Amino acid sequence: MELCTSVPLQHLARSNRLHELPKAPPREPIGRSSRTLAKHFLPRTANDRSDNYYSVLSNTRVCVVLAPRVSCLMWSRLLSPRVVGRSGVCWRSLYTMQLKTSDFRSLFTEGLNGLVEIFEKNNHELRIAGGAVRDLLSGKRPEDVDFATTATPEEMKRMFQVAGIRMINNKGEKHGTITARLHNENFESGETSPSTPMFLGLDGTLYDYFKGYEDLKNRKVRFVGSAEQRIQEDYLRILRYFRFYGRVALEPDDHDPETLTAIKENGRGLAAISGERIWVELKKMVVGNHAAHLLELMYKLELAQYIET
Protein backbone atom coordinates (compact mmCIF):
# COMPACT_ATOMS: atom_id res chain seq x y z
CA MET A 1 0.00 0.00 0.00
CA GLU A 2 2.29 2.80 1.18
CA LEU A 3 5.44 2.20 -0.83
CA CYS A 4 7.70 5.06 0.28
CA THR A 5 11.50 4.79 0.18
CA SER A 6 14.13 7.54 0.07
CA VAL A 7 17.40 7.71 -1.87
CA PRO A 8 20.29 10.22 -1.78
CA LEU A 9 19.75 13.41 -3.75
CA GLN A 10 22.72 12.76 -6.03
CA HIS A 11 20.86 9.76 -7.49
CA LEU A 12 17.75 11.74 -8.37
CA ALA A 13 18.70 13.76 -11.44
CA ARG A 14 19.89 10.96 -13.72
CA SER A 15 17.79 11.85 -16.74
CA ASN A 16 19.39 14.32 -19.14
CA ARG A 17 16.55 13.88 -21.64
CA LEU A 18 13.53 14.96 -19.63
CA HIS A 19 12.16 16.66 -22.72
CA GLU A 20 11.75 13.15 -24.18
CA LEU A 21 9.64 11.91 -21.27
CA PRO A 22 6.52 10.30 -22.76
CA LYS A 23 3.40 12.36 -22.37
CA ALA A 24 0.37 11.02 -20.56
CA PRO A 25 -2.00 9.09 -22.85
CA PRO A 26 -5.01 10.98 -24.22
CA ARG A 27 -8.05 10.87 -21.97
CA GLU A 28 -10.38 7.97 -22.69
CA PRO A 29 -14.16 8.26 -22.50
CA ILE A 30 -15.51 7.84 -18.98
CA GLY A 31 -15.66 4.24 -17.79
CA ARG A 32 -13.63 2.74 -20.65
CA SER A 33 -10.43 0.72 -20.41
CA SER A 34 -7.47 1.48 -22.65
CA ARG A 35 -4.51 -0.46 -24.02
CA THR A 36 -2.65 2.71 -24.97
CA LEU A 37 -0.33 2.84 -21.96
CA ALA A 38 2.32 0.58 -23.52
CA LYS A 39 2.55 2.83 -26.58
CA HIS A 40 3.27 5.85 -24.41
CA PHE A 41 5.51 4.35 -21.73
CA LEU A 42 7.36 1.37 -23.25
CA PRO A 43 10.89 2.18 -24.49
CA ARG A 44 11.24 2.74 -28.22
CA THR A 45 14.49 0.74 -28.46
CA ALA A 46 16.42 -1.71 -26.32
CA ASN A 47 18.83 1.09 -25.37
CA ASP A 48 15.96 3.14 -24.04
CA ARG A 49 15.51 0.69 -21.16
CA SER A 50 18.30 2.47 -19.30
CA ASP A 51 17.74 4.75 -16.31
CA ASN A 52 18.63 7.69 -18.56
CA TYR A 53 15.36 7.29 -20.43
CA TYR A 54 13.03 6.98 -17.49
CA SER A 55 13.03 10.10 -15.38
CA VAL A 56 13.26 9.63 -11.63
CA LEU A 57 10.58 9.80 -9.01
CA SER A 58 10.49 13.08 -7.11
CA ASN A 59 8.67 14.22 -4.01
CA THR A 60 7.53 17.54 -2.60
CA ARG A 61 6.11 17.52 0.89
CA VAL A 62 4.19 20.28 2.65
CA CYS A 63 3.77 20.18 6.43
CA VAL A 64 1.23 22.67 7.78
CA VAL A 65 -0.51 22.81 11.14
CA LEU A 66 -4.23 22.02 10.73
CA ALA A 67 -3.68 21.28 7.05
CA PRO A 68 -2.87 18.13 5.04
CA ARG A 69 0.70 17.05 4.46
CA VAL A 70 1.34 17.35 0.75
CA SER A 71 3.89 15.37 -1.23
CA CYS A 72 4.89 15.33 -4.89
CA LEU A 73 5.95 12.17 -6.76
CA MET A 74 6.66 11.19 -10.34
CA TRP A 75 5.17 8.08 -11.93
CA SER A 76 7.43 7.24 -14.87
CA ARG A 77 10.04 5.21 -12.99
CA LEU A 78 7.38 3.13 -11.28
CA LEU A 79 6.04 2.21 -14.72
CA SER A 80 9.40 1.34 -16.29
CA PRO A 81 9.90 -2.26 -17.47
CA ARG A 82 12.94 -2.53 -15.18
CA VAL A 83 10.81 -1.93 -12.09
CA VAL A 84 7.55 -3.50 -13.20
CA GLY A 85 9.25 -6.56 -14.67
CA ARG A 86 10.82 -7.47 -11.34
CA SER A 87 7.50 -7.30 -9.54
CA GLY A 88 5.58 -9.27 -12.16
CA VAL A 89 2.92 -6.58 -12.51
CA CYS A 90 0.84 -6.33 -15.68
CA TRP A 91 0.48 -2.59 -16.27
CA ARG A 92 -0.40 -2.29 -19.95
CA SER A 93 -4.03 -1.39 -19.34
CA LEU A 94 -4.88 2.15 -18.31
CA TYR A 95 -8.31 2.90 -16.87
CA THR A 96 -9.50 6.50 -16.76
CA MET A 97 -12.64 8.17 -15.51
CA GLN A 98 -13.82 11.67 -14.68
CA LEU A 99 -14.82 12.48 -11.12
CA LYS A 100 -18.32 13.92 -10.83
CA THR A 101 -17.30 16.31 -8.07
CA SER A 102 -14.50 18.84 -7.64
CA ASP A 103 -14.52 18.64 -3.85
CA PHE A 104 -10.85 17.65 -3.92
CA ARG A 105 -10.04 21.26 -4.80
CA SER A 106 -10.90 22.19 -1.22
CA LEU A 107 -7.57 20.61 -0.23
CA PHE A 108 -5.69 23.39 -1.98
CA THR A 109 -4.35 25.96 0.48
CA GLU A 110 -2.98 29.32 -0.61
CA GLY A 111 0.53 27.91 -0.47
CA LEU A 112 -0.40 24.84 -2.47
CA ASN A 113 -2.11 26.91 -5.15
CA GLY A 114 1.07 28.95 -5.37
CA LEU A 115 3.05 25.75 -5.80
CA VAL A 116 0.77 24.59 -8.61
CA GLU A 117 1.23 27.91 -10.41
CA ILE A 118 5.02 27.54 -10.26
CA PHE A 119 4.95 24.05 -11.75
CA GLU A 120 2.49 25.00 -14.48
CA LYS A 121 4.53 28.08 -15.37
CA ASN A 122 7.54 25.81 -15.89
CA ASN A 123 5.55 23.32 -18.00
CA HIS A 124 5.61 20.54 -15.43
CA GLU A 125 2.52 18.41 -14.90
CA LEU A 126 1.05 17.72 -11.47
CA ARG A 127 -1.36 14.96 -10.45
CA ILE A 128 -2.66 13.98 -7.04
CA ALA A 129 -1.20 10.57 -6.19
CA GLY A 130 -0.90 7.93 -3.51
CA GLY A 131 -3.24 7.30 -0.62
CA ALA A 132 -4.94 10.66 -1.09
CA VAL A 133 -6.55 9.35 -4.28
CA ARG A 134 -7.82 6.29 -2.44
CA ASP A 135 -9.29 8.47 0.32
CA LEU A 136 -10.96 10.84 -2.13
CA LEU A 137 -12.54 7.95 -4.03
CA SER A 138 -13.79 6.59 -0.70
CA GLY A 139 -15.41 9.91 0.20
CA LYS A 140 -12.85 10.71 2.91
CA ARG A 141 -10.74 13.81 3.37
CA PRO A 142 -7.06 12.82 3.11
CA GLU A 143 -4.70 13.55 5.96
CA ASP A 144 -1.73 13.37 3.60
CA VAL A 145 -1.78 14.57 0.00
CA ASP A 146 0.75 13.36 -2.57
CA PHE A 147 1.35 14.83 -6.01
CA ALA A 148 3.05 13.37 -9.07
CA THR A 149 5.23 15.66 -11.16
CA THR A 150 7.58 15.55 -14.12
CA ALA A 151 10.12 17.74 -12.28
CA THR A 152 13.17 16.35 -10.48
CA PRO A 153 14.26 17.80 -7.11
CA GLU A 154 17.08 19.68 -8.85
CA GLU A 155 14.58 21.25 -11.25
CA MET A 156 12.28 22.13 -8.38
CA LYS A 157 15.16 23.78 -6.58
CA ARG A 158 15.89 25.92 -9.64
CA MET A 159 12.19 26.77 -10.03
CA PHE A 160 11.94 27.87 -6.41
CA GLN A 161 15.07 30.02 -6.73
CA VAL A 162 13.84 31.72 -9.92
CA ALA A 163 10.48 32.40 -8.25
CA GLY A 164 12.27 34.07 -5.34
CA ILE A 165 11.16 31.44 -2.84
CA ARG A 166 13.40 31.16 0.20
CA MET A 167 15.29 27.88 0.57
CA ILE A 168 15.79 26.58 4.12
CA ASN A 169 17.38 23.54 5.75
CA ASN A 170 20.11 23.23 3.12
CA LYS A 171 21.78 20.45 5.11
CA GLY A 172 18.96 18.17 4.04
CA GLU A 173 20.27 18.00 0.46
CA LYS A 174 22.76 15.25 1.34
CA HIS A 175 19.79 13.13 2.48
CA GLY A 176 17.70 13.86 -0.61
CA THR A 177 15.61 16.67 0.88
CA ILE A 178 15.22 20.26 -0.28
CA THR A 179 13.00 22.60 1.74
CA ALA A 180 11.42 25.81 0.47
CA ARG A 181 9.04 28.20 2.20
CA LEU A 182 5.99 29.63 0.41
CA HIS A 183 3.04 31.45 2.02
CA ASN A 184 4.29 30.40 5.49
CA GLU A 185 4.26 26.72 4.50
CA ASN A 186 7.31 24.46 4.21
CA PHE A 187 7.72 22.44 1.00
CA GLU A 188 10.20 19.55 1.01
CA SER A 189 11.37 17.79 -2.14
CA GLY A 190 12.99 14.37 -2.29
CA GLU A 191 12.23 10.93 -3.78
CA THR A 192 9.63 8.36 -2.82
CA SER A 193 7.47 5.77 -4.51
CA PRO A 194 3.72 6.32 -4.59
CA SER A 195 1.70 4.54 -1.94
CA THR A 196 -1.21 3.75 -4.27
CA PRO A 197 -0.64 3.52 -8.06
CA MET A 198 -3.57 5.76 -8.96
CA PHE A 199 -3.30 9.38 -10.00
CA LEU A 200 -5.85 12.18 -10.13
CA GLY A 201 -5.38 15.04 -12.56
CA LEU A 202 -6.14 18.55 -11.37
CA ASP A 203 -9.09 18.51 -13.78
CA GLY A 204 -10.59 15.52 -11.94
CA THR A 205 -9.42 12.77 -14.32
CA LEU A 206 -8.51 9.49 -12.59
CA TYR A 207 -5.57 7.50 -14.05
CA ASP A 208 -5.47 3.91 -12.78
CA TYR A 209 -2.56 1.75 -13.99
CA PHE A 210 -2.88 -1.31 -11.72
CA LYS A 211 -6.63 -1.89 -11.28
CA GLY A 212 -6.58 -0.09 -7.96
CA TYR A 213 -10.03 1.41 -8.53
CA GLU A 214 -11.49 -2.06 -9.10
CA ASP A 215 -9.93 -3.33 -5.86
CA LEU A 216 -11.19 -0.28 -4.00
CA LYS A 217 -14.75 -0.85 -5.23
CA ASN A 218 -14.48 -4.50 -4.13
CA ARG A 219 -12.93 -3.48 -0.80
CA LYS A 220 -9.77 -5.49 -1.50
CA VAL A 221 -6.35 -4.68 -0.05
CA ARG A 222 -3.37 -5.89 -2.07
CA PHE A 223 0.28 -5.11 -2.56
CA VAL A 224 1.28 -3.90 -6.02
CA GLY A 225 3.03 -6.82 -7.68
CA SER A 226 4.93 -9.22 -5.42
CA ALA A 227 3.88 -8.88 -1.77
CA GLU A 228 7.20 -10.36 -0.66
CA GLN A 229 9.23 -7.83 -2.65
CA ARG A 230 7.15 -4.89 -1.46
CA ILE A 231 7.54 -6.02 2.16
CA GLN A 232 11.28 -6.53 1.85
CA GLU A 233 11.62 -2.97 0.55
CA ASP A 234 10.13 -1.71 3.83
CA TYR A 235 9.08 -4.17 6.53
CA LEU A 236 6.81 -1.59 8.12
CA ARG A 237 4.44 -2.27 5.23
CA ILE A 238 3.39 -5.40 7.11
CA LEU A 239 1.71 -3.25 9.74
CA ARG A 240 0.47 -0.80 7.15
CA TYR A 241 -1.29 -3.68 5.43
CA PHE A 242 -3.29 -4.42 8.59
CA ARG A 243 -4.03 -0.72 9.11
CA PHE A 244 -5.35 -0.29 5.58
CA TYR A 245 -7.30 -3.52 5.81
CA GLY A 246 -9.22 -2.08 8.74
CA ARG A 247 -10.00 1.03 6.71
CA VAL A 248 -11.00 -0.63 3.45
CA ALA A 249 -12.26 -4.20 3.90
CA LEU A 250 -15.90 -4.99 4.68
CA GLU A 251 -15.32 -8.51 6.01
CA PRO A 252 -12.90 -9.29 8.85
CA ASP A 253 -11.36 -12.32 7.13
CA ASP A 254 -11.08 -11.60 3.41
CA HIS A 255 -7.30 -11.69 3.03
CA ASP A 256 -5.35 -12.92 0.03
CA PRO A 257 -3.60 -16.17 1.13
CA GLU A 258 -0.39 -15.30 -0.71
CA THR A 259 -0.26 -11.96 1.10
CA LEU A 260 -0.55 -13.63 4.51
CA THR A 261 2.15 -16.13 3.56
CA ALA A 262 4.50 -13.31 2.55
CA ILE A 263 3.78 -11.48 5.81
CA LYS A 264 4.49 -14.54 7.96
CA GLU A 265 7.70 -15.42 6.13
CA ASN A 266 9.03 -11.87 6.41
CA GLY A 267 7.73 -10.91 9.85
CA ARG A 268 11.20 -11.06 11.39
CA GLY A 269 12.05 -7.89 9.49
CA LEU A 270 9.91 -5.95 11.96
CA ALA A 271 12.59 -6.55 14.60
CA ALA A 272 14.71 -3.85 12.97
CA ILE A 273 11.90 -1.25 13.05
CA SER A 274 11.91 1.23 15.92
CA GLY A 275 9.22 0.92 18.57
CA GLU A 276 8.05 4.45 17.80
CA ARG A 277 7.33 3.68 14.14
CA ILE A 278 5.61 0.42 15.08
CA TRP A 279 3.40 2.20 17.61
CA VAL A 280 2.36 4.82 15.04
CA GLU A 281 0.92 2.06 12.86
CA LEU A 282 -0.55 -0.02 15.69
CA LYS A 283 -2.48 2.81 17.30
CA LYS A 284 -4.09 3.64 13.96
CA MET A 285 -4.99 0.00 13.41
CA VAL A 286 -6.62 -0.57 16.81
CA VAL A 287 -9.06 2.32 16.32
CA GLY A 288 -10.13 1.03 12.89
CA ASN A 289 -12.51 -1.72 11.86
CA HIS A 290 -11.82 -5.41 12.55
CA ALA A 291 -9.20 -4.50 15.18
CA ALA A 292 -9.78 -7.62 17.30
CA HIS A 293 -9.55 -9.92 14.28
CA LEU A 294 -6.41 -8.21 13.00
CA LEU A 295 -4.66 -8.45 16.36
CA GLU A 296 -5.54 -12.14 16.61
CA LEU A 297 -4.30 -12.68 13.06
CA MET A 298 -1.01 -10.98 13.87
CA TYR A 299 -0.49 -13.47 16.70
CA LYS A 300 -1.31 -16.39 14.37
CA LEU A 301 1.26 -15.09 11.90
CA GLU A 302 3.83 -15.00 14.74
CA LEU A 303 4.35 -11.24 14.54
CA ALA A 304 3.80 -10.50 18.23
CA GLN A 305 7.37 -11.38 19.20
CA TYR A 306 8.68 -8.64 16.90
CA ILE A 307 6.32 -5.83 17.92
CA GLU A 308 5.84 -6.30 21.67
CA THR A 309 7.87 -3.88 23.77
Described by the principal axes of the CA atoms, the overall outline is globular
Overall average residue pLDDT: 68
The helix fraction, in percent, is 25-40%
- Do you know the CATH topology of the largest domain? Beta Polymerase, domain 2
N- to C-terminal distance: 25 Å
Instruction: Tell me the major beta sheet.
Output: 7 strands, mixed
By DSSP (H or I, 4+ residues per run), the number of helices equals: 12
Domain count: the total is: 2
CATH architecture of the largest domain: 2-Layer Sandwich
Strand runs, count: 11
Radius of gyration: 19 Å
Brief descriptors of the model:
disordered N terminus, alpha+beta, 11 strands, 309 residues, cca-adding enzyme, domain 2, 12 helices, 7-stranded mixed sheet, Beta Polymerase, domain 2, 4-stranded antiparallel sheet, globular
Indicate the topology.
Blueprint: E1 33-34, H1 37-41, E2 59-63, E3 69-73, H2 81-87, E4 94-98, H3 110-121, E5 126-129, H4 131-137, E6 144-149, H5 153-162, E7 166-168, E8 178-182, E9 185-190, E10 198-201, E11 205-208, H6 212-217, H7 227-233, H8 237-248, H9 257-266, H10 275-286, H11 291-300, H12 304-307
Parallel strand pairs: 3-6
Antiparallel strand pairs: 1-4, 2-9, 4-11, 5-6, 5-10, 7-8, 8-9, 10-11
Helix pairs in contact: 7-9, 8-10
